[in-house]
UniProtKB/TrEMBL annotation:
Similarity section: Belongs to the NAD(P)-dependent epimerase/dehydratase family. dTDP-glucose dehydratase subfamily.
Name this polypeptide is given: dTDP-glucose 4,6-dehydratase
Enzyme Commission number(s) from the entry: 4.2.1.46
SUPFAM superfamilies assigned: NAD(P)-binding Rossmann-fold domains
Cofactor(s) essential for the protein: NAD(+)
One protein family per Pfam: GDP_Man_Dehyd
Annotated catalysed reactions: dTDP-alpha-D-glucose = dTDP-4-dehydro-6-deoxy-alpha-D-glucose + H2O
Length: 349
């Protein structure tokens, strides 16, 4: 099988690429990535050079480029992860999200439709999406696969649009598609603009740890390697035309999560318990900040037998260990543009 994975140099994509290259040596995995600020080939240094792996640098907003690689490599299936993925950046500059997440997805659907030319035997378009498309929950309830879409940020609106286009290509053209909507991921290779790696980075450096509002927003967290396993299960055993919610059954208020992380960091860095908590600094809340996301993954668990392999405490420790052992990675991704972004986001408010 010639398998195209988009966004494979990013956080989740790199774990998915590694899993497929290692577990399915008879597949040829093509990783298509534009290498934006969020893409980093260092994430796949151990995979580079493997016989069943090829990196393609390209942009999914470029339809004629896609046409060319589809003609050349005759992909059988695609796992689509490439996206602009950070809510705060979508508030500051929404157009890149429309271009990549909406236009880029439609370009890929069209490239598949032309390349497969109505012969869909053995073909699959698997679209990876987010639970943020469902909007915001009150104190009770969970997102299920039939929760109506109610996106609030430019990021979630662009992902919601892309989900609708994928389903439209299934219903209109008969293209075999699968979708999954996942909660917040954490783990190795996470870009430090996101809550957990940003907090690890700042706690280590003794810098203030910014927390939006009063830290009361609730999120469900899933270890990234468990998300990659879920994608594997859905890709191979999920039903065509179906959507699967993926979550960790693991809800945390941001402030409780950060306090737990501070305690783990105190222990790992040999600091006095409570020292790192002093770094917590509340900052002006994000515009339109959704109160609570919580996801019901029972369809995935019952139909495909998937479940998270680690508890949150275990996953968080693995994550902290990885960041402490990979200072070079962090140094590299936090240089240059990232510093300007960080200043605008948290220091000039
Ligand atoms: P990421 O920002 O870490 O990685 C995105 C990758 O896409 C990067 O390597 C980037 O270079 C690439 N990319 C961006 N624009 C591109 C373009 N125009 N052409 C080609 N490549 C491009 O994102 P992530 O956190 O790994 O998320 C991956 C996918 O999973 C996204 O679709 C996201 O919506 C979804 N998702 C993420 C989470 C999460 O918690 N991170 C949760 C649920 C779903």
């Amino acid at each position: 099988m010639n398998l195209l994975i988009t966004g494979g140099a990013g956080f989740i994509g790199s774990h998915v690429v590694r899993l497929f290259v290692e577990v399915y040596p008879h597949y040829h995995v093509y990783n298509l990535d534009a290498l934006t600020y969020a893409g980093n080939l260092q994430n796949l240094a151990d995979v580079e050079g493997r016989e069943n792996y090829t990196f393609l640098r390209g942009d999914i907003t470029d339809a004629s480029y896609l046409e060319g690689i589809f003609q050349e490599h005759k992909f059988d299936a695609i796992i689509h992860l490439a996206a602009e993925s950070h809510v705060d950046r979508s508030i500051a500059g929404p157009m890149a999200f429309v271009q990549t997440n909406v236009m880029g997805t439609v370009n890929l659907l069209e490239a598949c439709r032309r390349s497969w030319a109505g012969d869909y035997a053995g073909k699959l378009f698997y679209h990876v999406s987010t639970d943020e498309v469902y909007g915001s929950l009150g104190a009770e309830g969970l997102f299920t696969e039939s929760t109506p879409y109610d996106p609030r940020s430019p990021y979630s609106a662009s992902k919601a649009a892309s989900d609708h286009f994928v389903r439209a290509w299934h219903h209109t053209y008969g293209m075999p598609v699968k979708l999954s909507n996942c909660s917040n991921n954490y783990g190795p290779n996470h870009f430090p603009e996101k809550l957990i790696p940003l907090a690890i980075h700042n706690i280590k450096a003794g810098k203030p740890v910014p927390v939006y509002g009063r830290g009361e927003n609730v999120r469900d967290w899933l270890y990234v390697k468990d998300h990659a396993q879920a994608i594997d299960a859905i890709f191979h055993r999920g039903k065509v035309g179906q959507t699967y919610n993926v979550g960790g059954v693991n809800e945390w208020r941001n402030i409780d999560l950060i306090e737990l992380l501070c305690d783990v960091m105190d222990e790992k860095l040999g600091r006095e318990k409570g020292d790192s908590r002093k770094l917590i600094t509340f900052v002006k809340d994000r515009a339109g900040h959704d109160a609570r996301y919580a996801i019901d993954s029972s369809k995935l668990m019952e139909e495909l037998g998937w479940e998270p392999s680690v508890t949150f405490e275990e996953g968080l420790r693995l994550t902290v260990d990885w960041y402490l052992a990979n200072e070079g990675w962090l140094e590299e991704v936090t240089s240059g543009h990232y510093r300007d972004y960080y200043r605008e986001q948290y220091e000039e408010r």
